[in-house]
Design brief:
2 copies of one chain form a homodimer. Chain A has 3 helices and 4 strands, in the order βαβαββα. In chain A, a hairpin with a 4-residue loop joins strand 3 and strand 4. The first copy, chain A, has helices at residues 12-24, 44-50, 74-78, and strands at residues 2-8, 30-36, 54-60, 65-73. Chain A has a 4-stranded mixed beta sheet with strand order 2-1-3-4. The interface between A and B is medium-sized, with 22 and 22 residues.
């Protein structure tokens, strides 16, 4: 089972991207974890270490980070 | 069968994102078409009409456009 983590911040763009990705991803081979950095602020540092520069972003288990849709920068999320 | 179109321009970032998406997408429910705008320049206008502002981008059949990884703008691709 592959794993992927979707980091978002609760914004409408994030939620829309989340639904779109959940719709096309193969859930029989990939387990998706959803992290709302607006609520789980203690995960912001973890996200940064993984290479997340903006949200929404999908971190794959090959360490690649797909930043999606020119969303909010982590600096904005830290606010 | 859902359809999705992945627009790219042959750059390393594009190719990496393409492989990552192909790896996680459910190919039993979603058919992916790959369009290289560097080679298929006649498709650039179509991409713009669909709302593609930069590549790589994934256009879903609900008309949503997921722009990925802060890639090249279409203005750059037109060059």
């Amino acid at each position: 089972m592959k794993t992927a983590t979707f980091y978002h911040a609760g914004c409408p763009v994030c939620v829309s991207a989340e639904q779109d990705l959940l719709n096309v991803i193969d859930h029989t081979t990939t387990k998706i974890e959803i992290v709302d950095l607006g609520e789980q602020r203690n995960k912001i540092e973890e996200a940064e270490k993984l290479g997340v520069q903006s949200v929404p972003a999908l971190v794959l288990d090959n360490s690649n980070v797909l930043h999606i849709n020119f969303g909010a920068s982590l600096e904005d999320v830290k606010g």
